[in-house]
Amino acid sequence: MSRKRVHGGGPFPRPVAPVSPVAAPPVERRSAADNRPDPADLYAALDLGTNSCRMLIAQPKGNQLHVVDSFSKSVQLGHGLEASGRLSRSSMARAVGALKICQRKLGQHDVRRARLVATEACRRAVNARDFINVVKRDTGLELEIIEPEEEARLAVVSCAPLVSTRTEQLLVVDIGGGSTELVWIDLSRVPALERPRAIMRLHQGFDHEDTVFPRAKVVDWISVPLGVATLKDMYSDVTDDSARYALMSWYFEEQLADFSPYDDAADQAREGFQIIGTSGTVTTVAASHLGLRRYDRNKVDGLRMTSDQIDTVIQGYLSLGPEGRRKDPRIGRDRQTLIMSGAAILQALLRAWPTDRLSVADRGLREGLLYAQMSSDGVLEDGPL
């Protein structure tokens, strides 16, 4: 597995034209002026990852988005991929079953504007194209396999509302099932009140030249082909729970050897440095820290945790052991096999970067896809986030 890394990134992929994921009735031919998107239109974003299939259907609301419907299901598409290099028949069947539900929801809401993407599992599998064809045949949905740089970009855009106006150096971390994307952004030259908005404008590209608005500068970014599912599979033969966790964390930290703060950034005051983490791992750790018996996004999204608080939660997970984690309502049966590999990634990151706080984001690729579509269509209002 090779890491993908770019200084400054590449051009943002061309804007995606509106798609019709399900059969739609014919419409009257209209002039170009009348063909502009209606702010009342619904948009959809589907993310088929290594472990989960997730979809959001939303409508632009001011400078934010209003979620109309959502779907999330663990499909374990990448199960066994590390050993075989292929998507298994059972994994593909689970994914197709979830995608059929998504197809029905798209039809029920008459969604005309959507992006339906697949990520690391499909990037790596030798039979990914066969799978994409099966999805098209069985569901009518056309999946698009996106590159790591676009995945990183969209994760950054989704986190824009959580960027503090005091932040001068920002690290956005997206821990997925099959890969982890990290983007380091310099905001020091952007006026404080414009910093969240400057992050949103990155949907135009990491290298986009904007002569009117202040720019956020992407210092560096990396895509490590290790996520909660792939890292877990690498060490599945280690029986001791604590030893397995230590090995996973050590190995992931090794992958970050060439991606760490420059000396001058590391010497900056910690107050001006912010890490935003977006993933099921981060939100689960936050829910455990808060002691939630039932998950509440309003309490988790935007929460700031210290590294000591995160350490306490992770040590609690280790004390519980596999059976205790399975019974914990904040973790659950589906996630208990993945939470320790995710925690290993999280702790490795906090050791490598100069901050003692983490901002929790219950948002990610789907929100980034929606923001990018709506921004490109001009249906989001301008103004402070």
UniProtKB/TrEMBL annotation:
Cited CDD domains: ASKHA_NBD_AaPPX-GppA_MtPPX2-like
UniProt-listed InterPro entries: ATPase_NBD, GppA/Ppx_hydrolase, Ppx_GppA_N
SUPFAM superfamilies for this protein: Actin-like ATPase domain
UniProt-annotated stretches for the region Disordered: 1-38
Transmembrane segments: none
Domain (Ppx/GppA phosphatase N-terminal): residue spans on this chain: 57-375
GO MF: pyrophosphatase activity
One Pfam family, short name: Ppx-GppA
Top-rank lineage group of the source organism: Bacteria
UniProt biased composition (Basic and acidic residues): 27-38
Protein name: Ppx/GppA family phosphatase
Species whose genome carries this gene: Rhodophyticola porphyridii
